[in-house]
Amino acid sequence: MPNASTGLTTTQAPFIEEAKSRGELYIEQPYDLYSEDNQDTWRRLYARILPRWEMYAHPKFLEGVKKLALPPDHVPRLPDVNKFLEPLSGFSAKAVSGYVPAFMFFDCLRERAFPTTITIRDGARLDYLPEPDIFHDVAGHVPMHTDRMFADVLVRFGEVAHTAAHLAAEIRDIEVREQKLESVIKAMARFFWFTIEFGLMRRPGGDRQDVCVYGSGLLSSFGEIENCIENDRVQRFPFQLEWVVNQYFEIHHYQPLLFVVDSFEQLFEQIDMLEDWMRHGKLGNVSPGEPGVSKEDVRSFIDAASKDHAGV
């Protein structure tokens, strides 16, 4: 095992590369490998974003930060996070070595396990990170997982992925199956992006114009959490499923368009509608554009479909 001086910096961690080379997706968090620079990066990220959480975050998120006892001065140990999290919603943070294929990711959610990156961004680049890191996953995502209603939303989303695989198993033509699946996965990815990652919600007890942040991509970004609320150029529309599944997005700049839900109950209802549209073929030809859907993502659903069709 590499020594601690190598650290666990995103894209620079030998431990991760070695795990990948062995085909290990689910791993343990090698806590002793975090360098002092890694720990300092966590401290800096946490200290500067805390005031913005207090100003812009959904109240359930702030409750979650307290319930998890997230440490401001060091990278959290996942067993400590799970000790507080599991009794509240049944969820746990599950360490992974890297990208999790789409179906496997959604299936983890169905099993109340959240795939969690263990590396942390380079301290010289606090603001921009195209891939997730532990600050995004644990500080951005996991506090919302302490809320039972939100946790059930994630489980429901995982169930919808199983519906997609089941429907794919019924398509005999391989080319048609792959085309339909690619479109369905794109629709699901867009839905997830504009809700779980970059979702806005009416502030409980506020007026119709008062919104707060519950999406993790916003909650883990010092700049974007303020920009999405304060910048008049950001378009904030009431959530409409047809718009969401046909709206492309890009990851390399602040989001110019976001969607606002009224409540977690409405979000749950929209996932039910997403599944209904899927069953009726309404997601089989959504608009082109980002996000791209990899062959690995499509294959993950096809493999699940094959097992479902075989009764496994």
Structure report:
It contains 13 helices and six strands. The chain is of the alpha/beta class and 312 residues long. The chain has one domain: Orthogonal Bundle (Phenylalanine Hydroxylase), CATH 1.10.800. The radius of gyration is 19 Å and the shape is globular.
Ends apart, CA distance between termini? 37 Å
Strand content: 5-15%
CATH architecture: Orthogonal Bundle
Classify the helix fraction into a percent range: 40-55%
**Helical stretch count?**
13
| Average pLDDT | 93
Query: Which structural class do you get from the secondary structure elements?
Result: alpha/beta
Characterize the main sheet: 4 strands, mixed
H-E string: HHHHEHEHHHEEHHEHEHH
Strand order of the largest sheet: 4-3-6-5
- Give the overall shape, derived from the CA principal axes: globular
Poorly predicted tracts of residues: none
How large is the radius of gyration?
A: 19 Å
The CATH superfamily bears the name Aromatic amino acid hydroxylase
